[in-house]
Specification:
By secondary structure, this protein is an alpha+beta fold. About 20% of the residues have low confidence. The chain binds adenosine-5'-triphosphate and magnesium ion (3 copies). Its EC number is 6.1.1.15.
Amino acid sequence: MVQRMSRMLLKTLRDAPADAETASHKLLVRAGYVRRSTAGVWTWLPLGKRVLENVTRVVREEMNAIGGQEVLLPALLPREPYEATGRADEYGDLLFRLKDRKGADYVLGPTHEEIFTHVVKDQATSYKDLPVILYQIQTKYRDEARPRSGVLRGREFQMKDSYSFDVDDDGLAEAYRLHREAYVKIFNRLGFDYRIVSAVSGAMGGSASEEFLAPAAAGEDTFVDCPACDYAANTEAVTVVVPPAGGTGHGPAEELDTPDTPTIETLAAHLGVPASATLKNLLVKVDGEITAVGVPGDREVDLGKLAEHLAPATVELVTAEDFEGRPDLVRGYIGPQHGRTFRYLADPRIAPGTAWITGANKPGRHARNVVCGRDFEVDQYLDVVVVEPGDPCPRCGAGLEIGRAIEIGHIFQLGRKYTDAFELDVLGKEGKPVRVTMGSYGIGISRAVAALAEQTADDQGLCWPREVAPADVHVVAAGKAAQTDLALDVAGKLEAAGVRVLVDDRAGVSPGVKFTDAELIGVPTILVVGRRAAEGIVELKDRRTGEREEVTVETALARLS
Ligand code: ATP
Ligand code: MG
Ligand code: MG
Ligand code: MG
């Protein structure tokens, strides 16, 4: 059916909402795609829903193409599995928590690793039941601290999440490869400009993780990009090497205002960032292996308690020597939202040892489920260094570039973190139980809509790639009744030929307003039925280039069908 603007629930706005900071937020609201329901929660109006559906369709097609099986799990979940893996603590306030009438604890799912592990444990008993890739396209809930960028960062949002289950590491590597290829196809089809970057540093050991980042000024991620080789990484997993100050890795502690026991507040003041900046991980050596330990929230790390918790493994501070000849190791940390990389040096009582904070949020092999504040207390941090553009690439030494981007996808070889937690085994070929290994893979579906808007919009408004546009052709009936008749006739013929059409047949709206709205709405081709309608001549306009041409109705139909 031709979408007639005269009958659609669609009201464009001249002004953007006062609190809108990003182009996508302003334009998606102004063009009538979405409306804010409450902070970080959005209503998708008819045009917006079409775009969301288009993104969903592309993702679904490519997931099916790699053998993904679509399922739908609940969003309302018991809290217990998230307690069992330590993620209820890790997520902290990000997790929406609720109770039922009997007082039982629930959460609204932020992501579903735990629950999928249960589903597979329930269904798969033998190696013959694996490998399997399961996915869903579903509403997720995260009580984000600053849901300010419109649908880019919702508290309720749409995600495609998939999970692979394999009996061995080769299987996991293959599932990961399949997902990576599918994501490349998806983001190419959607018309994204994107980079694939490492999301976990070399210091994290075996597990592989990459993010798909869409460069955009509105992005909240910062990534380093090497102009000379193919190295690119999210600074959350920074592998930038800054030569240790004074050769010991021990920085100028005196730069801090408070020489004794700096707290997160003094540190934050020193950095010029809010005290709410989140420090994620601590790098230590566990049994000689450099390992990251999760440190959620604004806490301080007591290494003694950490060592106690990890016993009988030995825990040592990472020293400057550990970084020698290891350009792959993490040296920095980016505070989310702040776009700066910080290097945290050691507790002076243990100097010249150096404890490093990284942002890679994945506990290492020994350090599974270690949660600061629950399992150990935190002590103190000291010095900070900001990674600057021009710092040496860890792979080739060329000067790095630093850019802002939106995380649109994330693929991750989890390994056995969750299958260990829930003892997910299947009977192996040799008749013995085998612990299953797992991957998880996300795409922000609703975020993709906003991220595309960020990358493609221009001064006039939205400007969609055809694959996701709410229509192929926007037919504008300039005003007179005869023009409207011809416009509806052309629109009907185009629809019959399989072209998706939006027709502006509104009465009593000036041609000027209609043209402005067509630019704002951003359908790729605009067909104007205007002053030469009586001669059977219409105007074709390319939304992106602005090129326009007068053609006969027949030519227009032939070209667009
Ligand atoms: P971010 O770093 O932006 O907070 P994340 O790393 O927490 O994202 P993941 O847990 O990796 O997100 O989730 C998978 C995907 O879901 C992300 O790559 C992103 O595209 C999307 N996503 C995550 N949080 C949100 C949100 N609050 N609103 C919309 N999409 C989101
Ligand atoms: Mg997040
Ligand atoms: Mg992220
Ligand atoms: Mg992520």
